[in-house]
Amino acid sequence: MLEISGISKTFFPQTVNEVKALRQVDLRIEEGSFTAIIGTNGSGKSTLLNAIAGTFIPDDGIIRVDGKNITEWSEYKRAQLIGRVFQNPFAGTAADMSIAENIVMAMRRGQSRPLTRAVTQKAKSEIADRVRMLNMGLEDRLDNAIGTLSGGQRQALTLLMATWLKPKLLLLDEHTAALDPKSAAKVAELTKQIIESERLTAMMVTHSMQQAVDLPDRIVMMHRGQIVEDYQKENKKRVRIPDLLDTFDRVQKRELFDETVAALLTEQYF
Amino acid sequence: MELIAIKKGKILHVQAVGRLDASWSDYFTDTFLGYIRNGDHQLVINAAEIHFLSSAGIRSLVRIHKELMKLKGRLQIINANEFVISTLQMTGFGMWLTTSVIQADDESSHEIDKAEKLPENCYALPVTKPMTLKKNENWVPWKKIDPEHITHLHFPSGTFGLGIGSPVSTEAFENLLFGDYLAVCGNVVYQRPEEKSKPDYLLKLENFVPDLYAIQSLYAEGEMSHLLRFTPNEDGTPVRLSGLVKQTFSVISASQIVFVILAEIDGLVGAHLIQSPTKIEESELPTGLKMRDWLSFSGERIHAKEQALVVGIASNSFNINDSTSNQSPSSMSGLSLHAHTAVFPYQPLQNGQINLEEQVQKFLNGPPPKALLHLIEDNRPGNGLGESSFIRGAIWFAPVKPEEAKQ
Fold first, then answer.
1. In terms of DSSP bridges, do strands A169-173 and A82-85 run parallel, antiparallel, or are they unpaired?
2. Does residue B327 belong to the interface with chain A, where contact is any CB pair within 8 Å?
3. Among residues B96, B130, B147, which one ends one of the domains?
4. Which of A88, A267, B214, B341 satisfies CB 3.0 to 4.6 Å to B310 for a cystine?
5. Domain parsing of chain A, residue ranges
């Protein structure tokens, strides 16, 4: 479904601030799969998602969705295929508009939106049915401004809006990180529920090892702009949080292994 | 709840003030497990000011009691009020109540050889079979391995060893995975030469005697002659490996010893193979960073608060591997020392004299080992990590003489 071949991105090239954010990343995501992207700060997780979403064009490499080369597509053009949920629960909704109005905008994404009444009774009924599945009692508050809701409620609605039209690919960028623990758990549970029921293809950047173990069916670990580990199928099923922490540890240890360590071990190991 | 602990001789008296109920039972349990971890296994609770005792509180006392039983320790409750007395008696736990504190037995009913002047906490052990040492040094590191370099070793009770080996399997020689191992009292812990893998182990069981193929080995056979119990230094600093080994040399007159340590870890510094030497194609030392394709280095002091099972050989006058040897063990703070350690989840050790084989069995029959390392002294100037150190534990040791004959 998604095929990434050799993409690289360097920010501020040839300056003192040069950052090689992605280095020849290859990744193939199957239709209907749910992949978590984990890694240390600055490992390139969010940059990878941004490259897929079209926030920037990579320096090298090709991105294909269903065989179409979308590498040069603009961000708004890719929005026809890609739904996104960001970390900030206030980023995906218009605070002064009602819940129903926000959702109607999401329902009409990619379609023409003429000057007609947006929130019809029929639309409202459909919205209420879908919002009910969030189990937050919001179906009775569809006319309330979305700005009056808590962060967790807004993020749950953002998730619903992003998946309303069944995008080819759903990108979740630390979408529970700014929520309190209870709301984060609720939104994580809804994420799994929606992705499974709608059979979506999704990629989720997260710092939560618990979510990485519990929610997706694949875990990709990044470090310094490269994929350093890929847990799939049986390997994913058996992986536990300590295994992920061990892998982080191993990756970092390898970095600490410099010429002086090599000399030390040459002298002392055998 | 407030807990005030005062040590009187070998007994730790703890005055408990408040309610021992569901709100405080976890805190109460954790605090007492901390006392036990610190080596206090004779505990007296002054319950005069325990105003309430619920089932959660009793469960907490049972947990502490069970932990102490494993260590041959004792829990006593004094000055309990009517309510606590009746609650404990009705629930069948009246045995903890006492009117006067029973003095601690010496937890070790050992017989010290009076002719031998030993430091406090050091015990001479009966020896019928002195320790001998054999070496396999056929393989020269970084040379291509030849089947002739491999020695088949068996580890019955009373054997100790460390080196680089592979469990016996039906694999062809080229597919054998040689990794670091240690052997103690007829049990082998082996680290597959992969970054991701956990150590595996072979335990002696009835007629089964663990065995492996080794390309490099130090193989000792015999009985330990001494046991030394150790705790943090007077200023509370942990005990360094070299310091501990030097203490053993001050106890016995020997130029070379074999030792086993069971101890709570302060920090370990070490490395292990992540690629089998069978993969060596060209007989040359990997230079610089290519070394990290072969060895994983701890990079920091690791496994604090867990339990180490160390097997080692040390020399204070000559290199363990004599001048004809191709091996060059670490020179740790003036000692020639080669030690491997397996890391286990923490379990407290009983105080006093304890039996090596029983303790090793206890660990190997518990949760599996988490890591195996060849210990290194990181003496790099500026950013060196130093050497491995321990908080408290036991070291068994014996003098050894190298044998001429090869295994």
1. parallel
2. yes
3. B96
4. B341
5. 2-90+166-268
The 8-class DSSP code of residue B302 comes to B
We report the CATH number of the domain holding residue B84 as: 3.30.750.24
For A217, phi and psi rounded to 5 degrees?
-110, 10
Q: How much of chain A, in percent, has pLDDT values that exceed 90? A: 45
User: Does B126 lie in the same domain as B91?
Assistant: no
Position B41 pLDDT exceeds 90 = yes
What are the CA-CA distances from residue B396 to residues A24, A111, B252, B253 (Å)?
Answer: 54, 79, 12, 15
Same structural domain for residues B7 and B139? no
In a domain, B270, yes or no: yes
pLDDT band at B327 (very low <50, low <70, confident <90, very high): very low
- Look at A262 and B383 and tell me if their CB atoms are within 8 Å: no
Residue B86, domain extent: 2-96
Q: Write a three-state SS string for chain A.
A: CEEEEEEEEEECCCCCCCEEEEEEEEEEECCCCEEEEEECCCCCHHHHHHHHHCCCCCCEEEEEECCEECCCCCHHHHCCCEEEECCCCCCCCCCCCEHHHHHHHHHCCCCCCCCCCCCCHHHHHHHHHHHHCCCCCHHHCCCCEHHHCCHHHHHHHHHHHHHCCCCCEEEEECCCCCCCHHHHHHHHHHHHHHHHHHCCCEEEECCCHHHHHHCCCEEEEEECCEEEEEEEHHHHHHCCHHHHHHHHHHHHHHHHCCHHHHHHHHHHCC
> Does B276 share its domain with B209?
yes
- The answer to whether B392 and B376 are in contact (CB under 8 A) is no
Number of domains in chain B: 2
Q: Is the pLDDT of residue A22 over 60?
A: yes
DSSP track, B202-229: E--BTTB--EEEEEEEEEEES---EEEE
- Decide if B319 touches A, using CB distance below 8 A: no
C-alpha torsion sign, points B327, B331, B337, B342: negative
* B83 and B133, same domain (yes or no): no
- Which of B149, B162, B195 has the most A C-beta neighbours within 10 Å, making it the best mutation to test the interface with A? B195
Asked if A135 is an interface residue toward chain B (Cβ–Cβ < 8 A), one would say no
Closest CA to B405 of B136, B86, B18: B136
- Band (pLDDT 50/70/90 cuts) for residue B217 is very high
* HSE value, Cβ hemisphere, 13 Å, CA-based, for B268: 29
Domain end: B81, B96, B111, which one? B96
CB atoms within 10 A of CB B156: 12
Q: Which residues contact A235 (CB under 8 A, 6 or more apart)?
A: none
Residue A112 has pLDDT above 80, yes or no: no
B204 to chain A, minimum CA–CA distance in Å? 28
Chain A, 241 to 260: residues with Cβ < 8 Å from chain B are 246-247, 250, 252-254, 256-260
What CATH class has A2-90+166-268? alpha beta
Q: In sequence order, what DSSP letters do the residues of B22-50 get, joined into one string? A: TTTHHHHHHHHHHHHHTT--EEEEEEEEE
CA distances in angstroms from B346 to A240, B184, B236, B304, B366, listed in the order given: 20, 19, 20, 10, 10
B216: closest CA of chain A, how far (Å):
9
